Amino acid sequence: MTDPPVEPASSAPDRSLLVIGVGIVALVVVAVVAVVALGSREAPSFSADTPEGVVQRYLAAVEDEDHETAWAYFSADVQADRSLEEYRRTARDYGYYGEQSRRVLFDRSEVDGDRARVWLTVEEYYDGGPFGGGETYRSERQIALVRQDGAWRIDDPLIGLEPMPGIDY
Question: Which strands, in side-by-side order, build the sheet including 101-112?
Answer without folding.
Answer: 101-112, 115-126, 135-148, 151-154
